[in-house]
Amino acid sequence: CGRLGQFSCGNSLCVPHWARCDGVNNCGDNSDEQQCDCSSLNQFSCSNGLCVPHWANCDGVNNCGDNSDEQNCACDSVKQFTCKNKLCIPYWLVCDSINNCGDNSDEEDCVCEKINQFGCKNKLCVPYWARCDGINNCGDNSDEENCGKLNAFVMI
């Protein structure tokens, strides 16, 4: 980069020098975030050498790219669920039928508490209107069991 105050990225782009080591991939190839002294910048040091802002550490989002900013976190017990692998995720992601933890611990022992959901035998929750619709919504077919009794009950 020919101008003063510019940083030369690994891909030949130029970015302002003040944008180097700011926790943002300004170059597009992350070269502006490599070999930074994170502690002097009051940033979190990722295992892969990247720096991310301290507020991004243990926020439930993989900001580093190697998940090191989400390891060994003390989860906010009011807002976050602690996975068995110590990852923190927001409570609203628990029992959503998606493995958000990576170890499936957020999908274990789920009980459908919502009045409009049916609890499958495999602990998944499906919309109650999907029960006895002829489609295996649960994956274990438990939403299609005992439908004759259900229909007889509904008709009375």
UniProtKB/TrEMBL annotation:
Task: Fetch the SUPFAM superfamilies from UniProt.
Answer: LDL receptor-like module
Task: Report disulfide bridges, numbered on this chain.
Answer: C9-C27, C21-C36, C46-C64, C58-C73, C83-C101, C95-C110, C120-C138, C132-C147
Query: Where, per UniProt, does this protein localize?
Result: Endomembrane system; Membrane
Q: Which GO terms describe its biological process?
A: vesicle-mediated transport
Gene3D superfamilies for the chain: Low-density Lipoprotein Receptor (4.10.400.10)
Q: What is its main location?
A: membrane
Bilayer topology annotation: Single-pass membrane protein
Keywords, comma-separated and alphabetical? Disulfide bond, Glycoprotein, Membrane, Receptor, Repeat, Transmembrane, Transmembrane helix
Domain of life of the source: Eukaryota
Q: For this UniProt entry, what's an example GO CC term?
A: endomembrane system
Please state what the protein is called: Uncharacterized protein
